[in-house]
């Protein structure tokens, strides 16, 4: 997924792509990928961990998509059509 899940394609409204986690564990990668609009496939051999991961990922699916955080707070972004620094209200 890249460093901290940032710099990933698809946040411009295009297809975000997918993420494959062959060692799912408790599902942290899925919890990060799903709210950002990525399709996610996780593989886990332990049924207990798989159930925990399903519950955690389902929580983020119910919350819906969220905006990816700006990896560089000094960069300007558009707010209501105007360019503003990220820290401005």
Describe this structure in words.
The chain has a two-stranded parallel ribbon with strand order 1-2. It starts with 17 loop residues before the first strand and ends with a strand. It has one domain (3-85). The protein is elongated, with a radius of gyration of 15 Å. The longest helix has 17 residues, at 47-63. It is built from two helices and four strands; from the N terminus they run βαβαββ. It has 89 residues and is of the alpha+beta class.
Topology, element by element:
Blueprint: E1 18-21, H1 28-33, E2 39-42, H2 47-63, E3 76-79, E4 82-85
Parallel strand pairs: 1-2
Antiparallel strand pairs: 3-4
Helix content: 25-40%
What integer value in Å does the Rg equal?
Answer: 15 Å
Describe the biggest sheet? 2 strands, parallel
Biggest sheet, spatial arrangement of strands: 1-2
Tally of discrete structural domains: 1
> Which regions are unreliable across 5 or more consecutive residues at pLDDT < 50?
1-13
Task: Give the CA-CA distance, first to last residue.
Answer: 30 Å
Describe the structure using short key phrases:
two-stranded parallel sheet, alpha+beta, 26% helix, 2 helices, disordered N terminus, 89 residues, 4 strands
Offer a quick outline of the entry.
With 89 residues, the chain is of the alpha+beta class. The chain has helices at residues 28-33, 47-63, and strands at 18-21, 39-42, 76-79, 82-85.
